[in-house]
Specification:
single chain, about 240 residues, alpha/beta, eight-stranded mixed beta sheet, two-stranded antiparallel sheet, 10 strands, about 20% strand
Length: about 240
């Protein structure tokens, strides 16, 4: 793997013939979750059973959380989150607030990821129809937002322990993505992002005609082996 700067974001590239993101093969771009180090999802690339030509990009979110750690180990965020408020709303099962909120910083985060995808195409030869976009937790929400709004959507979308947010804006956009394969996984006992809201997201996508492969599992806020296997198959199908 190698560390590069792409569109003002720190990115780890891996996979491809040289295992450093080289070559001309398709690419999986994965956005990490809130509070995770920028390289949190890098090991996932080694777990995926995909063609050797497939490349991976793991961008680090631009906001560094002050945790008293070296920069490379510090938690990152795509936008600020009030964790106390989030936990309060989740405990009260206030699903209307959870699904209606438009996070401060979402617009900027979306612009940063769009710039990243444009730069990956220009500098690394990754066409959008050969690019799978996904993420975990906050990264999954951002990936969903980008996939729904982009003028040039990715080949497929992976929502790993994500959630439905800004529903008044997302739901009208979903029908235009009816041909985009979507993988969604979520733990039934997720303590941070409720399984019930994840099911709402799946249902709204399905109602819009999107073919969603839903991978529920008995667990919490994590990426289980079943989701890894499903992600491998999604990348293979979407970039064939």
């Amino acid at each position: 793997m190698r560390r590069v700067r792409v569109a003002n974001l720190d990115v780890v590239l891996s996979g491809g013939p040289d295992r450093e993101g080289g070559g001309t093969g398709p690419m999986l771009v994965l956005l990490h979750g809130y509070g995770a180090p920028g390289e949190d999802l890098v090991p996932l690339g080694r777990q995926l059973a995909v063609d050797p030509s497939v490349r991976f990009a793991f961008p680090a979110a631009p906001h560094v959380l002050e945790m008293g750690l070296p920069k490379e180990q510090a938690g990152r965020a795509w936008w600020p989150i009030d964790m106390v408020e989030l936990q309060r709303v989740a405990m009260q099962r206030d699903y209307e607030t959870l699904t209606s909120r438009v996070p401060d910083g979402l617009v900027q985060a979306r612009a940063e990821v769009e710039a990243l995808l444009d730069a990956l195409e220009a500098e690394h030869g990754v066409a959008r129809n050969k690019l799978v976009l996904g993420g975990f937790s906050q990264g999954a929400m951002l990936a969903t937002d980008v996939a729904l709004r982009s003028e040039r959507p990715p080949a497929a979308l992976a929502i790993l322990s994500g959630s439905l947010i800004t529903k008044a804006e997302w739901i009208p956009l979903m029908r235009a993505r009816a041909t985009m394969p979507v993988l969604q996984s979520h733990g039934r006992t997720d303590p941070l992002l409720s399984f019930e809201v994840a099911e709402m997201l799946r249902q709204e996508l399905t109602n819009a005609g999107v073919a969603v492969e839903f991978v529920p599992f008995n667990g919490g806020h994590t990426i289980p082996n079943g989701a890894v296997d499903a992600l491998s198959k999604l990348v293979a199908r979407a970039t064939a």
